């Protein structure tokens, strides 16, 4: 019984016969230099990043403050102040004889704006009145009051709950979770703060491992000593403080299986990095966590996703946010993520065997073509090129396709070579 | 702006008017004694458990060894030995002129047996030949050989991969992941060892927090210092060693949101326990982890699940395993889990407001009735009673329904009272 090498070599040779390939995937290991040499390109990227002037331009710098609205992360005291002043405002209006009414910013698509200079979606300034003394808005005004009250309680008690918990606090009033959820987003916009500032959190599903220590609710967490399972990313990023790291980059991994491979091989000990996965579509907690790391550590983020439209969709959620949370996009997004792999051009370059490539469905191709029109893709010609290869070849591949060259090909050859060659776009 | 109390009190009073309720949910807090007093019942349960003779009866003690088959957890060396002897066996058969053939135990439903003395499903002794020199089985014989070879490689290298990785190692041969997956289960039965012994693991999704320390791949993990996010349960339980704890019980939680509440409130500091959730349907890693804790620590496991058929289904997976992994049931199951809550009888007892109770669908009722016939329910008259209440009332409720009495009602009143009264079945 022997290891896979002979089998895979055969597969690789076969692939070579099938079509002209640029590299012999199994000979690539010989090209690898010493770890310190391998990291040269990453070091340059990191220096470049650190020497960049702060790019976080604000709406006021762009002269958009009047016509646009952005929310900010606020601490419990900040939120309490906002709630109290909102209620005070209502009281004043009542005393003026104008009745009990909230002014609620519109979150409709027509009120959303993509700002290229920010590379983010923001809300325009349209808002609507929500008077209590109107049959059309009475119930919603009451729900708004109740949500404001509940958020006030959360901030006073310094506790976090889920949207589901919030709903169950007053099912008689809310009736459907949709009602409490959507008013919660309204309230975030009204108070100009992020939804997570309201102490209402999403359930977490992300995991982190690698060269990172931080404090979480007072506990010191060392992510380099978290075995192979890693540390669960906390649902409430405001409990994370004192972030420290000697990592040179953050490796953002789409899939659980790749994360496990890298964690078990302790990839971060060979190439100092922080490895994060949200196991597919990123949840809010993982996005907030990534953003926090990027902001505090100022190191590059390299992404390892499947070579399919879904992999790019995931990158787009990290980079520019999702539509229904657009009011919160500043605080959720990490622009400037480098696409390390698996890129459509890698399939040829690494001679991924024919049988490990999957045909794209019509739906896939449609999604791919739609992505080609999106601003965040068009902003980067290299991404356009890759996506064009994908759509033209109608072929996709998963990260795991690399397993065809051996289980540890990903951690021992593919990724080190990518780093060594600075092969990201 | 005030806290929820007045609102909830009103709701509670309303519920009281609606129907005769036994307890005023908000007055219950006054009944609570000091933490040490509260834990008296749990202490008795733990003592009872520890004084029980080892109940893990074996097939041979039951005289079933000849007619039944169970698999065991084996370390890498054990698996390598088994593979080598399986291949040796094949070589002998070839030399004897009987040709290249594997003897593969049947995993079909007809070959499964529920053993009440073990409270587990085991495999009966039916097996089939898988000769290479037959058009019907040739491909499957080749796949079996390839899987044996790959597992051999994993055990030699001491690395773990997912089923998906395994599939991608030789897509040309396997064609569909079904093929490599099902042969992997065959191989586990052939070698009489668990699937996780083969170093093929499922992706983890469980989280743990509380009074527990263990070593994971050499790293010391202290689950009492894991912030509010907790520690991700490792995909490979064989890397977990040196389990230590001063916890008095394990609290098994169905839902993420309840886990978060208990973690943030540091419930385990008030009532020494280990809190585990698999976020819904338990994955293999979480089941293995729970079983390991129970075996090593010999402390009671108390379950907090939704009061619906799905909550019981989840308990059944923990306690007696799922059908398609029945050959592995011994090593995956934790019998003797106590059902703490939320039980159908709690809905009346704690006066859960009418609007927080959900009507059961016809599908729910069907599932409930089917569960009533299952052995693991019938073995416990109290469970039967609870399930009968659920089916008769056609009403279900989620753990979060307790939020209607305040966000921290779960951690500050409901659970302490349950513990104090020894209210589990």
Automatic annotation (TrEMBL), chains A, B:
Q: Which residues bind Mg(2+) per the record?
A: 254, 306
Protein source organism: Prasiolopsis wulf-kochii
Q: What is this protein called?
A: DNA topoisomerase 6 subunit A
Q: Which residues form the active site?
A: 168 (o-(5'-phospho-dna)-tyrosine intermediate), 168 (nucleophile)
Q: What is its EC number?
A: 5.6.2.2
Q: Main subcellular localization, coarse class? A: nucleus
Query: Which keywords, in A-to-Z order, does the entry hold?
Result: DNA-binding, Isomerase, Magnesium, Metal-binding, Nucleotide-binding, Nucleus, Topoisomerase
Q: Which reaction does it catalyse?
A: ATP-dependent breakage, passage and rejoining of double-stranded DNA
Q: What does this protein do?
A: Component of the DNA topoisomerase VI involved in chromatin organization and progression of endoreduplication cycles. Relaxes both positive and negative superturns and exhibits a strong decatenase activity.
Its GO biological process annotations read: DNA topological change; meiotic DNA double-strand break formation; meiotic DNA double-strand break processing; reciprocal meiotic recombination
Record localization: Nucleus
Q: Which cofactor(s) does the record list? A: Mg(2+)
Which HAMAP family does the annotation name? Top6A (MF_00132)
- UniProt xrefs under InterPro entries: Spo11/TopoVI_A, Spo11/TopoVI_A_N, Spo11/TopoVI_A_sf, Topo_VI_alpha, TopoVI_A, TOPRIM_Topo6A/Spo11, WH-like_DNA-bd_sf
